[in-house]
Design goal:
alpha+beta, 8-stranded mixed sheet, 5-stranded antiparallel sheet, 20 helices, 30 strands, 37% helix, globular
Length: 620
């Protein structure tokens, strides 16, 4: 994020709070940071109910404050002075934040002040930074208006140094400090950009995103559902949705299988001791679903991840350097007790199916294994039409939160970077973003409307091999620790589906579409011919990315009009629609309707036509 834009967004969160304070004087305030594309503020309105309908008057008040050309003034205070301010102003959330600071801390405040009257509109406990003069926002608005009316050079100059155009977006609930046991606050979100054009483009993308919302399309296309009786965050997949998720899973498994990965299977529950040994219990114990044996009271957990299980398979017999690397893969459902307020469609669920992989290798094999995994990632995301990838190389910093030999880290980070360069990845490096047990590569894919999503990962692990005392005998006859590499190509299949549905807008590629072809009849005079077409289609196998599979097709022989049948097929986003009338029957042909064109195809050429259609799509 550009530092100037971030400062403006942060400042606007204070302007939002000042506007709220004028309109609702008894409110208390949580925090109000800048975020990607904008800002928010968490506010306790007490007994007052604030909704999206109130945003217009709050935004109007914000613009009034900006028009007064207020300034932001920084000042410092001791911890005791800050506490007195917070208590005197009944700001209990600020009191809590201040009390957590060291007793000798110097605390910074920002006052939003009207320079003409000297009136302080809002004071906040804040580190900053902020813009110091809100007249920049007013200058932008004036410049924008002038620029619309002509080629005023002064106006153009002001636009060139424009501050963000903004808009309040929505009201949401947010637990104080993300804790479900604490107060529910009202979070007001806003967006802000340097120019009105950028804001307009963002709002346009938002409207498109609403049309593509996977929750909306999931219902319309009959892909998945939820049930209160089953539980929040536990999706149920329909036959159509199950086809889609299994096709994607098979693609991932197939690509890894060709690279030498072997399937394994692990149970869905395990003794808690496993996660205590791996270290996961200490860090993620509050995310575990606990299961107690009614026979002997033994404590189990629904598994939240698979790596400790795969480590146990590796440890089940002696290993030598000759069989390294050992590669395991599994598509299995894990369970995490996510907070209900953070669940959302398929984006965040409590039952997540991971296309998980683990490599156990020698240190000198790290680079080659990473290159293999990178090639798998690129092939899969090219196949699903998301081939604009960036890679974040996440390294350790100088803090003491990382485990393992620093020399091993340095060697691994070097191999990660070399693999990224040699594979021509668009990459960037970030220190301090590594997991505590090893450096990693996070892949970000851009969707059809320009949003970036974190997808695949390649994660080195120096800790679990040590904790589980994994070993192999090297060429010198000595016992040596392997390096463990975690990899997920899709990640959580549920989360990937939320991205993929929105990326495609529900128009899935032919190879993975739940229903690939639908036959529509003009009238019942062609029913016999339709059966002949069905016999032809029953023998079709499409070459998919890693296998062949029988064609999935349906027939609409209802008495509805052809127009109604076409609308139904279009609403379900069927890739190929075959329209059959008396003339088609007499010519032994079908009228093929695709998303972007229509054409006539002879029945004896239909198989080849569909196969070529699929092949062309896969080749992009």
């Amino acid at each position: 994020m550009c530092k100037e834009v971030e400062k403006m967004r942060h400042t606007l969160s204070h302007v939002l709070a000042a506007a709220v304070k004028e309109l609702y004087p008894t409110t208390t305030f949580g925090i109000g940071p800048a975020i990607d594309n904008g800002f928010y503020y968490d506010i306790d309105f007490g007994d007052v109910k604030v909704s999206d309908a109130d945003l217009a008057k709050i935004e109007k008040k914000m613009r009034g404050i900006i028009a007064r050309k207020c300034v932001m003034e920084r000042r410092e205070a001791s911890r005791e002075e800050a506490l007195k301010w917070a208590r005197d102003n009944n700001q209990k959330y600020k009191v809590e934040l201040i009390e957590e600071l060291p007793k000798d801390a110097t605390i910074t405040f920002y006052d939003l002040k009207d320079p003409r009257s000297g009136e302080v509109l809002f004071t906040d406990l804040c580190k900053g930074p902020h813009i110091d003069d809100l007249s920049k926002v007013e200058a932008f608005r004036t410049a924008s208006s002038a620029a619309v009316g002509g080629s005023n050079k002064d106006a153009s100059a002001l636009v060139a140094h424009a501050s963000p155009a903004f808009q309040l977006q929505r009201v949401a609930g947010a637990y104080w400090r993300g804790d479900e046991k604490r107060e529910m606050l009202t979070r007001i979100y806003g967006v802000a950009f340097e120019t009105q054009e950028e804001l307009d483009e963002f709002l346009k993308r938002q409207e498109e995103a609403k049309k593509r919302d996977h929750r909306k399309l999931g219902k319309e296309l009959d892909l998945f559902c939820f049930s209160d009786l089953v539980g929040a965050g536990l999706p149920l997949f329909t036959p159509r949705g199950t086809v889609l998720r299994e096709e994607l899973s098979e693609l991932s498994l197939g690509l890894r299988g060709k690279a030498g990965f072997k399937k394994v299977w692990t149970p869905h529950i395990t003794k808690v001791d496993l996660y205590k040994a791996s270290g996961h219990y200490a860090k993620f114990g509050d995310e575990l679903f606990m299961v107690h044996s009614q026979v002997n009271g033994e404590e189990f957990a629904l598994k939240p991840m698979n790596c400790p299980h795969h480590a146990q398979i590796f440890a089940s017999r002696p290993r030598t350097y000759k069989e390294m690397p050992v590669r395991y893969m599994e598509a299995t459902t894990d369970y995490r007790d996510e907070k209900t307020g953070e669940l959302g469609g398929l984006s965040r669920v409590r039952s997540l199916t991971q296309d998980d992989s683990h490599v156990f290798c020698r240190k000198d094999q790290i680079k080659e294994e990473i290159q293999t995994l990178v090639s798998i990632v690129r092939r899969l995301y090219t196949t699903v039409g998301m081939n604009k990838l960036r890679a974040r190389l996440s390294y350790r910093d100088d803090s003491d939160k990382y485990l393992g030999d620093p020399a091993l880290w340095e060697m691994a980070q070097k191999q990660i970077k070399e693999a990224a360069i040699e594979n021509g990845l668009d990459y960037f490096e970030q220190e301090g973003e590594a997991a505590f047990y090893g450096p990693k590569i996070d892949f970000m894919a851009e969707d059809a409307i320009g949003r970036e999503h974190q997808v695949a990962t390649v994660q080195l692990d120096f800790v679990q091999p040590e904790r589980f005392e994994l070993e192999f005998v090297n060429e010198k006859g000595e016992k040596e620790r392997p390096v463990m590499i975690h990899h997920a190509t899709l990640g959580s299949i549920e989360r990937f589906l939320s991205v993929f549905v929105e990326h495609t807008g529900g128009w899935f590629p032919l190879w993975c579409a739940p229903e690939q072809v639908r036959i529509l009849t003009v009238n019942d005079q062609v029913d016999d011919y339709v059966q002949e077409i069905a016999e032809v289609l029953s023998g079709v196998e499409l070459e998919e990315p890693v296998r062949h599979n029988a064609l999935r097709f349906e027939q609409d022989l209802s008495n509805d009009s052809l127009g109604k049948k076409i609308r139904r097929a279009t609403e379900m986003k069927i890739p190929v629609v075959l329209i059959v009338g008396p003339k088609d029957a007499s010519e032994k042909a079908v009228s093929v309707r695709l998303r972007d064109k229509e054409e006539k195809v002879k029945l004896d050429e239909l198989v080849e036509y569909l196969q070529k259609l699929n092949e062309d799509e896969l080749q992009g």
